[in-house]
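re: ur question from the group chat, yeah i did fold both. here u go
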Amino acid sequence: MRGGLVASGLVFGILAGLLSGIPQAVSQESPARAAVPVNVEGIELFEIESKLLTEFWGRPMVIQAGVVLPLGHDASRHDTPVCYSIHGFGGSHQEAWGAGARLRTAMSTREYPEMLYVYLNAQFPMGHHEFADSVNNGPWGKALTTEFIPQLEAKYGAAATSTGRFLTGHSSGGWSSLWLQVNYPEYFGGVWSTAPDSVDFRDFTGINVYSFENAYVDPQGTEIPLVRQGEKWVMILKTYAQQEYAKSDYGGQFASFDAVFSPRAADGRPMKLFDRETGKIDRETAEAWRKYDISLILKNDWDRLGPLLSGKLHIYMGTLDTYRLEGALKLMKADLEAIQSDAEILLVEGRDHGTLFRSHPELWPEGMLPHIHKAMRASWDRHLNTTQLVP
């Protein structure tokens, strides 16, 4: 869902409210190159043209990131771990310029773990593309792992090993980072996913995709609430979805999910999970969503994935998430505990989509992001003395 990142001492912004000014016709062009902020020493734009995405779309397509370098970084050493961070819906790689100066100062004084901090751009005309291969958006996951990351690591002297590649992200970026770790379990060395979009489609923002007939009311006929402030519900799902749809029939949050998870309709557009006027769920589309249900993937393929993901899964969520995303994570947590996974899944009492980042006296006294980044660096340090690093 919509979301940016906030941490103690590192403010990345919370993105909220409905998008405005979305174009009225679907564009198949490359994501627009947003104006890069004034260059700051040690914060660079890195982008490549993706052959895979260009072939899919039939026109040049780029993958972008903002890269924050440690002071005095020596790219010739090829021994620096990388934190790949993915923004929430409505964000972009420009978070690198908002956070970079403070990160570099903190790293220079050894107050913060020294790594390459790479802020990936998942912004797309049809919404957040989630770095998932999609029949509508194209092979973003494959392009990231086979084209973009190898070139970035070569240029900036990254360690270029699985044990030195870490993922994090918030909201839609939380879902994306978890998706990448689960689908490329030997390529990445760990994920710290925060407030991810629904990871189990038995509770997709309050909808059981597989059994409900309607996205606006539950089987008892009660309207499904979506947005809360504290413990008070302030908007039902119907209102949220219809307000987005009134602005544009694509590019909004729910249309973004359709673009990633749904088959392509006869008119060339993504099939809708539910009718925006009536809320009726399309059963064919709902069944097609199963291949993007992360909890289902883990449960069905645990014999293979379990050993590959050992020690790598870390997911944090507030019990009062603003967009009720905690319900899906509770279902995943129960399933993973049943199959004896060692995944770290924390449901933080009383926290919402944004306050999750604030310092917590027991879990992260310095703030959640410093906790995450230090855990990444500690994981890398544990592997420095291994006899062979896995590429």
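okk and heres the other one u asked abt
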Amino acid sequence: MVLESLFNPFKLKKKPWEMFFGGMIYSFVGLMLAYFVFKEVAAILTVFLIVLAALPMFFTTIQNEEKLDLKYTHESKLLREHTKVLAYLMFLFLGITTALVITYIFFPQNVVHSVFNLQEKAIINVNENIRGYLTGGITRFDIFLRILSNNLKVLFFCLIFSFLYGTGAIFILTWNASVIATAIGNLVKQEIAQTASAVGAASLSTYFSATTFSFFRYMTHGVFEVAAYFVMGLAGGIISIAIVRHNLQKEQILIDTLDLIFISLGLLLVAALTEVYVTPFFFSG
């Protein structure tokens, strides 16, 4: 009750940045409890506890958005309301990611190994698949299609999880935040190690520049990707609640959810294009 009552989802529409700190609080509390209580399964339990803290807020949000579908007749007003929700959900994601990056960089190695071992394995598997795919002579467009295909699978599961569980997409997004945080943290450590080996020591500016580089390396395209998943999760949640309340036959709900689905697909397309054609241009290697 304490964590879930810290933030009011209705007030967050006016102050979405507050959810950044919410994501950090949920993450630090969740990972410490997971590590000290169930160290053997801390990697997945950390994600579960973060989700558990965010779930009431996310569920209340989806319920309210479904009610707005029945209140407003103009789709433009509905999309403006959804944009406010998307803003604080993105801050929630950034807060979770930031807290986990800090943990990965600064916490003792035994804690890092317990909390992030599954995420590290997931990154290794992805990298191995990419290397295997790159062995044959392929073009950037081939890579684009592969990335888009993989992201569409995640998007589909966001829709299915939200449809079946109402707020199920929050689990997928929190897991993705932990994987991205692991990737960013690992890249930061590599950059710092390279600098330290060259100049003999790592200064505060080294940490700052390495963290900034690593963050933008993944979030230049990641912000569009995550936004797409949140929008699809919102669409699936609205459908789920509309079915429970027997409102699915209402025309405005159908129009709104279809619009959200198409917006999500558009954001995912932008994310894939950015990842293949923009991110490598600024962050080669």
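fwiw on the second one: Residues 3-282 form one domain. The two ends are 45 Å apart (CA to CA). idk if thats what u expected
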